[in-house]
Structure formats: structure tokens, C-alpha cells
Design brief:
α1 runs parallel beside α2, α6 runs parallel beside α7 and α10 packs antiparallel against α12. Helix content is 42%, strand content 12%. The termini are far apart. It is built from twelve helices and eight strands. The radius of gyration is 19 Å and the shape is globular. β4, α4 and β5 form a beta-alpha-beta unit. It is an alpha/beta fold.
Amino acid sequence: MAQHEPLQGIFVPLVTPFTAAGDIAVDALESLAHRVLDEGATGLVALGTTGEPATLDAEEKRTVRAVCAEVCRTRNAPLILGAGDNNTRATIAALEALRGHPEITAALVPVPYYTRPSEAGIRAHFTQLAATSPVPVIIYHIPYRTARSVSADTLRELGRLPGIAAVKYATGGIDADTVDLLGDLPEDFAVLAGDDEFLFPLIALGATGGILASAQLTTAPFVALISAWHNGNHALARALGAVLAKMSAAAFNEPNPTVIKAVLHAQGRIPTPDVRLPLLPAGPTSVDPTMRYLAALSEMQTPDRRTRPTPNPLVTSSSEV
């Protein structure tokens, strides 16, 4: 079983940019990786849902992993790799293939989807992974994709296993189970926000960071939010959290990563906004509001407003999104 250091900070799951010919835009991917680290991200996530791994072939996945691994080696940053599926034996094999790759800090593994195992089956699945994986495992808890919810008690039980480092918590909201889990966490087991809109309240409840796709659009405000909260500047944290939540909601108004790719293309950071079928490119009704909230965040981050951000009408005007 793999030992681990506590995970904290912002980890950015990168898109896989494509050229006009449909190939991976390697230079753009490398540039994205460096930029989010330049803006304060703790580390990268390769081949998460945002990276469209379901539509990449084996060679393309190796390319994405190699690019991200090289950037992380150069920058001395942690790399989390998306791995595994709803087959325990296949997931064990996928994790075993990571042995001998020291650049990979942890594996992000979803709760088994489609087959809808019982909670006891989910515990057995992750217990086997924890016992055999050469890298620490992060449980990816996202019920709206897996059709299985996992209780606070089960997450705590799994979190006590030495090979389980964290949970990416993406339940679509905050409820009594969320409060229960964060109120009594096992030692060295981290909760990382997985729903971008709920970063601020989860940090306030005790989460140590987040795995947040929209953070590649503007990483620094997410980092500033966490820093402000821990430094006691709760007013700034709340102000940033409000606009970041609006921006994130707009960025996920269509299937991920369609809006994010469209915005990155509009920013000139990737060569096309293209996604692969069955996804379709995002439309302006989602892209334009995302761009407006990004502009508001840029205004809030000017030096003379770092400690006392001016209220922005975008914070309360949800009807425009």
C-alpha cells in the first residue's frame, strides 16, 4: 500500500486541446500546465473527466500523461492521474501500471459507475485498491455520474486505510452528510472540493483544497480564496467565492469541458474549442456569461482591491447567467 502526504491546495484538471486537424495540441497543453502552476496551483490532474479520456486512444493518453509529467518534474509539482473504472480487477491492473512512475503522486479513481454496487461493495472495491496500488488513491465521489452515493461513515472508514489519501467530493451541494464527514475526518485524509461552485463553503467547513476544472480559466482567484480564508480575511474569501461560484456555474452550463474549451480558445490559449463526439461545442449563451464573470474577477484582483474588493453587480445578478 502506498504512503502519502496530506493533499491541499488547488489541483487543476486540464483539458486536452486539439488542433484543427483533430490531433492533440501538445504545445498548448504544455503551456496550459505551466500557466496554472505560474498562477499558484499546487498541482495538475491529467486524464480527469475534463481531459476527455473516454475519447482518447491509448497513444493519446500516453502523450497527455508524458506532457503533464514533464511539466510537473520541471516544476517540482504533484501530478494526479485519472485511472480506473467500474471493474475492480481492471482498476487494480491500471493502478499497477503506474508502478515505477515516481512523477505520479496519486490516482483519481471514480466510485464504480453503471453497475451500481452496494455500499459494502464500494468499500470492498476501494479496500482492494488501497491494499495493492503503488500510488495513493483519491476517491472520486460524484453521484450524478455514478448513480451511487457514498455515506460519510463509509468515506471515513475508507479514509482510515493507509492507501487512501483523499476524496474528491462532488455531490452537487452541501447537506448533512457533508457536514458530518468534515466534522470528523480521519487523520491525513483530505476532502478536496470537486464541485467548483462550492469551494468556498467546503473550505469553511474544513476541506483542504479542490480539484477544479474552471480554475484553468483563472487560477489565481481560487488560490487567493483559500489563502484569504486561512489568513482570516473572510470578507475577501466570501467576495471571491461569490463571483467564482457564478463563473463556475456558467462554465458548467453545458457538458464539461465544452464551455471551458470555448473560453480558453477565446482567450487565445488553445488553437480550437473542439471537443469529440458525442460532445458538441458550447454556444455563446454559456460562453459569454463565463467571460463576463472572468472580467469581474480580474477587476477584483487589481492590487488596490486585494483586501477590500468593490462589490460587483455580477455577484447578485444571477438572472443574467
